[in-house]
């Protein structure tokens, strides 16, 4: 579909009209729509793999694990929970509202916009889109322009399953997104960088449109002196180099207790070798994908060069090939504190390692930065774990693993302040796309006894009531 502002406006108007109809939609009707999607999605695997390969060499196993599995998990959870989610929730009356009955109704917000990034396009576009549909909304979808093949497959799927007044997809760059976010939408679900998140929130403010912002940041990993080092090294190398480090919840930097640092660093190298083979051969390994484009290659390579210029040493990797947007899995030591790699979200296959003596230093370092999306701690010491959890803040936290939190269907997923606003997934996603409407019905309340005229008797009763109830 051509993405002129005029077309977008026409579709928006049609969705606004349809959204009013959808307010009346039943569980069965919504389920039928979701099943329509499921049928087409489940027979699109080959197209999904081919597009991911074409965009940045993403391998089939990673598309399966990090994209298709995530979409199917979300959909399965929605299907099994939707009836319960849609049911109005009864709430007990309080003494103040004695004589009334109340409930919370989950009404659809209306026309929702889903803006998604390039790093897990299927997962981060279809996931929120399905939740929005489950909550009874119409959806306008704007996938990333940086992964055009994957966006094209998503468009094909969406156009096969939906009428544009139900779900419409608009490809294109920030100009398309800017027009979409300028509309008086009922909700915007944005996944991307904190910088663009601020622009989206400012645009939403013009209409007081509610937002869910799934953003990024620098997620720390702490390895203390009691940690199972083998497990910590294996999990961290998987979490860091999956999708070439282009994961919002990838470990961004490491803090390792000085007493175990040398041993841990040796284990990191061993694990890179066992995951991807010899450094010199990694370029030919189809399991190791590429940085998404030249601009991001230059950005990540710039972080590497800046760190090395300031004295960082290479524990592993550092091989690059600009023709292929390739940087081998790179681990850096002795990184100067004013290096850019310690300031910006890395979002690529570089991992700076720092050592520490005392956990308080690490906590002070984390707290001096914007709140991260994720925090990981490897430890067997519950006192250390509790201290880190209590004295820091992050969107989510994982003990002795990483990245798994995203796949847990009963955990809210999202950041805090600079790493995000609002939560996604399962019940939390359904609520993000719903308005929780309070409904109170009067039966035999006695509030009229407190109405004017305020005679001495009424005044006394008001005072006594306050005394009794508070
Ligand atoms: P981005 O912010 O550059 O782009 C995201 C989307 O916003 C794209 O579709 C883009 O076209 C659109 N966009 C760009 N400029 C816009 C504007 N002015 N107005 C409205 N929309 C605009 O992010 P990216 O490079 O695609 O993704 C990487 C970032 O996303 C990282 O910071 C990463 O941590 C974050 N991320 C977060 C999550 C999460 O779930 N919290 C998941 C994946 C990625």
What does this structure look like?
The protein has 15 helices and 18 strands. With 470 residues, the chain is α/β, with parallel strands linked by helices. The chain has two domains: 5-215 and 420-437, Aldehyde Dehydrogenase, Chain A, domain 1; 220-413, Aldehyde Dehydrogenase, Chain A, domain 2 (3-Layer(aba) Sandwich). The strands form four sheets. A seven-stranded mixed sheet has the order 10-13-14-9-8-15-16, with helices on both faces. It has a six-stranded mixed sheet with strand order 5-4-3-6-7-17, with helices on both faces. Strands 1-2-18 form a three-stranded antiparallel sheet. Helix 9 (229-241) crosses helix 10. The longest helix has 27 residues, at 60-86. It is globular, with a radius of gyration of 25 Å. The protein starts with a helix and ends with a helix. Bound molecules: nicotinamide-adenine-dinucleotide.
Number of distinct helices: 15
Low-confidence spans: pLDDT under 50, at least 5 residues?
none
The CATH architecture of the largest domain can be given as: 3-Layer(aba) Sandwich
Number of spatially distinct domains = 2
Summarize the structure.
With 470 residues, the chain is an alpha/beta fold. The protein has 15 helices and 18 strands. It is 44% helix and 18% strand.
Short descriptors:
470 residues; alpha/beta; Aldehyde Dehydrogenase, Chain A, domain 1; Aldehyde Dehydrogenase, Chain A, domain 2; 2 domains; six-stranded mixed sheet; 15 helices; 18 strands; globular; binds nicotinamide-adenine-dinucleotide
């Amino acid at each position: 579909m051509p993405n002129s502002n005029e077309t977008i406006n026409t579709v928006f108007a049609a969705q606004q009209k349809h959204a009013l109809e959808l307010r009346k939609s039943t569980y069965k009707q919504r389920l039928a729509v979701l099943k329509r999607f499921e049928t087409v999605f489940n027979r699109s695997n080959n197209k999904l793999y081919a597009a991911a390969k074409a965009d940045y060499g993403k391998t089939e196993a990673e598309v399966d694990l990090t994209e298709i599995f995530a979409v199917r998990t979300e959909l399965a959870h929605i299907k099994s929970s939707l009836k319960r989610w849609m049911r109005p929730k009864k709430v007990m009356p309080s003494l103040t509202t004695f004589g009334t009955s109340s409930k919370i109704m989950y009404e659809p917000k209306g026309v929702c916009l889903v803006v998604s990034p390039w790093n897990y396009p299927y997962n981060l576009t279809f996931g929120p889109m399905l939740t929005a549909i489950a909550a009874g909304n119409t959806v306008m979808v704007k996938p990333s322009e940086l992964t055009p093949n994957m966006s094209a497959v998503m468009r094909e799927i969406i156009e096969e399953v939906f009428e544009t007044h139900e779900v419409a997809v608009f490809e294109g760059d920030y100009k398309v997104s800017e027009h979409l976010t300028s509309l008086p939408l009922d909700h915007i679900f944005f996944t991307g960088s904190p910088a663009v998140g601020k622009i989206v929130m400012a645009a939403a403010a013009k209409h007081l449109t509610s937002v869910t912002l799934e953003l990024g940041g620098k997620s720390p990993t702490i390895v203390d002196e009691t940690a199972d080092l083998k497990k910590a090294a294996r999990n961290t190398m998987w979490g860091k180099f999956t999708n070439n480090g282009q994961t919002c919840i990838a470990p961004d930097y490491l803090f390792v207790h000085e007493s175990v640092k040398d041993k841990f660093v040796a284990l990191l190298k061993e694990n890179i070798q066992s995951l991807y083979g010899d450094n010199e051969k990694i370029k030919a390994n189809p399991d190791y994908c590429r940085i998404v484009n030249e601009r991001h290659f230059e950005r990540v390579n710039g972080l590497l060069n800046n760190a090395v210029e300031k004295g960082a040493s290479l524990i592993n990797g550092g091989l690059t090939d600009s023709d292929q947007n390739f940087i081998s899995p790179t681990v850096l030591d002795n990184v100067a504190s004013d290096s850019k790699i310690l300031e910006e979200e890395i979002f690529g296959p570089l991992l700076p390692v720092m050592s520490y003596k005392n956990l308080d230093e690490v906590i002070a370092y984390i707290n001096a930065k914007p709140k991260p999306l994720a925090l990981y701690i490897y430890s067997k010491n519950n006192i250390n774990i509790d201290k880190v959890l209590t004295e820091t803040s992050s969107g989510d936290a994982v003990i002795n693993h990483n990245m798994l939190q995203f796949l847990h269907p009963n955990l809210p997923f999202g950041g805090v302040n600079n790493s995000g606003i609002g939560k996604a997934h399962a019940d939390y996603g359904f609520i993000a796309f719903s308005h929780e409407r309070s409904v109170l019905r009067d039966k035999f309340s006695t509030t009229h006894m407190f109405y004017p005229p305020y005679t001495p008797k009424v005044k006394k009763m008001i005072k006594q009531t306050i005394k009794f109830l508070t």
